[in-house]
Specification:
InterPro entries: Enolpyruvate_Tfrase_sf (IPR036968), RNA3'P_cycl/enolpyr_Trfase_a/b (IPR013792). The protein has four helices and eight strands; from the N terminus they run E-H-E-H-E-E-E-H-E-H-E-E. It has a single domain, classed as UDP-n-acetylglucosamine1-carboxyvinyl-transferase, Chain, CATH 3.65.10. Helices cover 25% and strands 18% of the residues. Helix 3 links the parallel strand 5 and strand 6 (105-108). It is of the alpha/beta class. The relative contact order is 0.15. Strands 1-2-4-3 form a four-stranded mixed sheet. A four-stranded mixed sheet has the order 5-6-8-7, with helices on one face.
Length: 158
């Protein structure tokens, strides 16, 4: 069940993409960063920034209609300690790929470790983006025409 993000260390990183694709995601506390007692607060903040709503902090429903919105999506990928988070950066990148292509996305304070660079190289095939390394910013440009190349995680070869 793809709507449940759990049971692997990186599972929380796909929660935003699932929320935007299916309209619902269930975050089980055992999965993601909580597996090692690290907080997942920034991941949950990302779900809310994407338009998610929750009553219990575990099941998020998509309330924002991005298809009929012209809003820009901006998210800061730092932890509450001010450190750029690899997991939050990857989570935000994968989430931006599920937003409609007419939405410009800007991620700030991104981590630039090799795992993030690998994800950027992969997603650049699906959605054009520009990385400003010195400022730690990635921008997914607005594409006004409909694109059938939106990244859906099920389509990735694993």
């Amino acid at each position: 069940d793809l709507t449940t993000a759990s049971f692997s260390r990186a599972s929380i990183d796909i929660a935003g993409n699932i929320l935007l694709t299916y309209g619902i995601v269930h975050c089980i506390e055992v999965g993601g960063c909580q597996f090692t007692k690290r907080p997942i607060d920034r991941h949950l903040n990302l779900l809310v920034a994407l338009g998610g709503y929750t009553d219990d902090g575990k099941i998020f429903y998509l309330k924002k209609d991005w298809k009929n919105s012209n809003d820009e999506f901006i998210f800061d990928c730092r932890t509450t300690n001010g450190i750029s988070s690899v997991g939050v950066t990857i989570h935000a990148i994968l989430s931006c790929c599920a937003l409609p292509t007419h939405i410009q996305c800007k991620l700030t304070s991104i981590a630039l470790e090799i795992s993030v660079r690998t994800v950027i190289a992969l997603i650049a095939q699906y959605r054009p983006c520009v990385v400003f390394e010195s400022e730690r910013i990635i921008i997914f440009e607005k594409i006004n025409e409909y694109s059938n190349h939106d990244l859906v995680l099920e389509h990735l070869p694993i």
